[in-house]
Amino acid sequence: MIYRLNAAIALIFMPLLCGFIDLEDMSQDFVLSTKKIDVPGYPEAFNPSIIRWQGRILLSFRHIPNPVFSFVSHIGLIWLNEDFSIASEPQLLNVQVEDSFILSLIPPRSEDPRLVQIGERLYIVYSDNKSLRITRGGFRVYIAKVDFDGTSFSLHNIQCLTRFETENDDKREKNWTPFEFDGEMLLAYSLHPHRLFKPIGGGACNRIALSAGNITWGWGELRGGTAAENIGDRYLSFFHSSMDMATVHSQGNTVAHYFMGAYTFSAEPPFQITAISNEPIVGKNFYHGRDYKPFWKPVRVVFPCGFIHDDSNIWIAYGRQDHEIWITQIDKEQLLESLVPVETLSSEGTPG
Question: Domain 2-349 is classified in which CATH homologous superfamily?
Answer without folding.
Answer: Glycosyl hydrolase domain; family 43 (2.115.10.20)
